[in-house]
Amino acid sequence: MISARGLRKSFGDFEAVKGIDVDVRKGEAFGFLGPNGAGKSSTMRMIASVSPVTSGELRIFGLDPATDGPAIRGRLGVCPQEDTLDNELNVFDNLYIYGRYFGIDRATCRDRANELLEFAQITEKAKSKVEDLSGGMKRRLTIARSLINNPDLLLLDEPTTGLDPQARHVLWDQLFRLKQAGVTLVITTHYMDEAEQLCDRLVVMDKGVIAAEGSPRELIEAHSTREVAELRFGVGEHEALAEKIEDLGDRVEVLPDRLLVYSDRGEDVVTAVIERGLQPIATLVRRSTLEDVFLRLTGRSLAD
Amino acid sequence: MATTPTRPTRPTRTDRPTGTLSAWEGMARQYDYWLTVYKRTWRGGVISSFATPLFYVVAMGVLLGGFIDADPSRLEGATSYLAFIVPGLVAAHAMTIAVSESTYPVMGAIKWHKTFFAQLATPLAVRDLVNAFVAFVVFRVASACAVFMLVLAPFGVFESWWGPVLAWLSQVLVGTAFALLTFGYSARLRSEEGFGVLFRLGVLPLTLFSGAFFPITNLGPVLEWVARLTPLWHGVSLSRMLCLDTVDWSLAGINVAVLVILCVVGWRWSVTGLDKRLEV
């Protein structure tokens, strides 16, 4: 579906994407994980065929965005980071009119719009103004709009940013259904739980380059231990204490508010720490996540 | 060049080798959008499109005009000041509508509502957005000028039946040129403060000094030539010659040529401006 080789994007002197290779296969959910400013959105806009490629090769459905942009966009669904819904149209018209841009005839457009209202669970809001919708509903409407042309490939840029936990879960459920229906999904996110939930395969991006690639499980296995012991001590003590427990795990990360000890046996780490006479304020043993992978690969956490 | 596979379950009109839509198809796909915009905004348009110029005609043409001796030799062939002022006023009005419809709405579609960004994520291209937008503005100009000319017809200000029809076309041409020029300006503008400058230093002086209210020969030889270089004067000149049946066809040819050239330049200016602005 997507093939990129040495893909670059520059804005003046600033290089947002510094030569990435990506392949997305039909039917998979593919993720770009990385902090803000990693180059994810720039990559997405190039894939969406609205932002010209600076250099390198990009093919979507085997077509070149530079010459076949409209044909590619006709088969894409795009859910941008910022809602671009038309506030002056009602909910139904947002879907209907968007469908017309794709050259879909009026009757089909109406049917599709009604189906999608149902899918997005906003049928009763059909005649409402967009402004009157909640954040979660707007997002669902944006996703519904991106599906009006039955896209072969759906691009979702930070789909759940700014949503409350419940709204996120509703959205994830819907994306999951789309995936099961065979729609290829490409998702950017800076939430590692979202990437773990939704993506079959992902690349970790940082500063315009790809730091690692694989399924969430493969990435965790390759770049982290099975478990992590989180230890919280008093303010300012973490740096000094790190040296004292270095030997207890494969690796120790110092965060401003806690120490992370990477080990396949987290409970044993906690026991050993206490045996050494150290008294953490709080401890937590958990499984490694993509956040740990990111920390390992870049030396920074995703929130930075 | 590869073509996309044809799928029977959905429209295949996007399946063109080069992927570009014809200009007509690009606009046709936005028809429903602009229809809803029109349904929502036509009431407000009626006031500004018809009432405002009517006030001008009454105040300047009838009341102020009552004090002016109508000497056709000094009024470019008009038998009354009202007959002199009407063709120019309508041309100036075409410009005003075109400019105001191409300022804030363009900036809104880029900056506030981001309509253009949403539209560009579909098979539509930048030139399709410009074409449909300007077509809508031209429709507003054309309908406003048509109603206006019809209302004025019974007042004996037109000298032939075909002249006013061609004059109306010339007013539409003025609207098109100004819509395109303004669109290009608005597409490049970062802040709406630039619109104040445009209205005060562009629209207002053009309205006052391009021959709509008085013959530009009154300006003196130097300023008269400056006035002749303004786009609006070419529209006023055409509109008036046609309404008063005093057409100098070689001058009319120049007037039309200038306005058509401005349309072409304005279209390029709009497409390149919007293209640059929407590329992020």
Short description:
The complex is a heterodimer of chains A (304) and B (280). By secondary structure, chain A is of the alpha/beta class.
Q: How would you characterize the overall build of this protein?
A:
The complex is a heterodimer of chains A (304) and B (280). Chain A has 304 residues and is α/β, with parallel strands linked by helices. Helices cover 37% and strands 26% of the residues of chain A. Chain A has 2 domains: 215 residues, P-loop containing nucleotide triphosphate hydrolases (Rossmann fold, 3-Layer(aba) Sandwich), CATH 3.40.50; 63 residues, Alpha-Beta Plaits (2-Layer Sandwich). In chain A, helix 3 crosses helix 4 and helix 8 packs across helix 11. Chain B is an all-alpha fold. Chain B has one domain. Chain B contains 11 helices and no strands. In chain B, helix 3 runs parallel beside helix 7 and helix 7 packs antiparallel against helix 10. Classes of the chains: A alpha/beta (304), B mainly alpha (280). Chain A: It comes from Nocardioides glacieisoli. Chain A: Belongs to the ABC transporter superfamily. Chain A: Keywords: Antibiotic resistance, ATP-binding, Nucleotide-binding, Transport. Chain A: It is a peripheral membrane protein.
Count of helix runs of chain B: 11
Q: What is the number of domains of chain B? A: 1
> Strands of the biggest beta sheet of chain A: in what spatial order?
5-6-7-3-8-9
CATH superfamily of the largest domain in chain A: P-loop containing nucleotide triphosphate hydrolases
Mean pLDDT of chain A: 90
Number of strands of chain B: 0
Anisotropy-based shape of chain B: elongated
- In terms of per-residue confidence, which ranges of chain B show pLDDT below 50 for 5 or more consecutive residues? 1-17
User: How many angstroms separate the termini of chain B?
Assistant: 27 Å
InterPro entries (chain A): AAA+_ATPase, ABC_transporter-like_ATP-bd, ABC_transporter-like_CS, ABC_transporter_ATP-binding, P-loop_NTPase
Pfam families (chain A): ABC_tran (PF00005)
Main location (chain A): membrane
Membrane topology (chain A): Peripheral membrane protein
